């Protein structure tokens, strides 16, 4: 399992493009009939993708975790961003359509992933955090998710925020998770931006059309940097970093956090005029 180490904000000021991509970008996650995970030193979050096509995949443990099984001391959120599929947790099967979410609590031992149709295989995005107690496994469909309308067409940031795992939704130890869908004609996400020093965050971008990209903005508000993001790529955001972006077309992204609290609104706003 690839390991991402923490970066001090002063160091980022001196990074060139390839260093930024190496330290923050999670790419090549989607591989046929494989589970790919990345261990980060930001609140010990693990991010990854399970992409079953013609085989049933099992979530095995990794040497990095020093655990008998993956969720021995962890919890996990999973959102499907492609075709229909099934996740089986200790013998209980859960069917996920596109944009459905499954939370799995600490202590689940056997987790498998399967496609309903190999020609339209699912892409399961996984986010896992350390857990101190067990919460029940819960499936939440996109229709059941709490929805917040944000932004406006006039500022090219009209978007629908779907909340799954949070204080008023699926209960968890520290994981917070949901997804945002940009409306046609809108390209800006999380603008105006913010930071939250109590939590790290990871963005997983999807439904980016072929040939298009998202410019993901990061760094301190007075020392911004950017990453060019392709479809099915993720970026890790340290607690000190703003996280925002604009695409060459509309797209969607999954946001996930781990840290001190489950309060979705725990954030410190950044004024657009202060960004450099």
UniProtKB/TrEMBL annotation:
Zn(2+) binds at residues 194, 196, 201, 243. It comes from the Bacteria. Its cofactor is Zn(2+). One of its GO terms (molecular function) is 4-deoxy-L-threo-5-hexosulose-uronate ketol-isomerase activity. It holds the Pfam family KduI. Pathway: Glycan metabolism; pectin degradation; 2-dehydro-3-deoxy-D-gluconate from pectin: step 4/5. Keywords: Isomerase, Metal-binding, Zinc. Its EC number is 5.3.1.17. Binds 1 zinc ion per subunit. It catalyses: 5-dehydro-4-deoxy-D-glucuronate = 3-deoxy-D-glycero-2,5-hexodiulosonate. InterPro entries: KduI, KduI/IolB_isomerase, KduI_N, RmlC-like_jellyroll, RmlC_Cupin_sf. Belongs to the KduI family. Catalyzes the isomerization of 5-dehydro-4-deoxy-D-glucuronate to 3-deoxy-D-glycero-2,5-hexodiulosonate. HAMAP family: KduI. This is 4-deoxy-L-threo-5-hexosulose-uronate ketol-isomerase. It comes from Mucilaginibacter phyllosphaerae.
């Amino acid at each position: 399992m690839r390991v991402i180490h923490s970066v001090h904000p002063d160091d980022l000021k001196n990074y060139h493009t390839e260093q930024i991509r190496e330290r923050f970008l999670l790419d090549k996650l989607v591989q046929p009939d494989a589970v790919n995970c990345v261990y980060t030193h930001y609140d010990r979050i693990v991010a990854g993708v399970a992409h079953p096509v013609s085989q049933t995949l099992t979530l095995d443990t990794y040497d990095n975790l020093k655990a008998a099984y993956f969720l021995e001391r962890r919890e996990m959120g999973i959102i499907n961003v492609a075709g229909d599929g099934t996740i089986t947790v200790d013998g209980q099967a859960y069917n996920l359509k596109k944009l459905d979410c499954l939370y799995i609590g600490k202590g689940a031992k056997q987790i498998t992933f399967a496609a309903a149709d190999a020609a339209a295989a699912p892409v399961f995005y996984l986010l896992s955090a350390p857990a101190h107690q067990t919460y029940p496994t819960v499936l939440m469909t996109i229709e059941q998710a709490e929805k917040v309308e944000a932004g406006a067409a006039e500022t090219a940031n009209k978007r629908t925020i779907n909340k799954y795992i949070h204080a008023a939704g699926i209960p968890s130890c520290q994981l917070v998770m949901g997804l945002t869908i940009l409306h046609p004609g809108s390209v800006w996400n999380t603008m105006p931006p913010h930071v939250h020093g109590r939590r790290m965050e990871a963005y997983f971008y999807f439904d980016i059309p072929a040939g298009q990209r998202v410019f993901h903005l990061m760094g301190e508000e007075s020392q911004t940097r950017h990453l060019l993001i392709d479809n099915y790529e993720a970026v890790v955001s340290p607690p000190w970093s703003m996280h925002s972006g604009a695409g060459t077309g509309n797209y969607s992204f999954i946001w996930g956090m781990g840290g001190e609290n489950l309060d979705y609104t725990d954030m410190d706003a950044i004024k657009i005029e202060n960004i450099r």
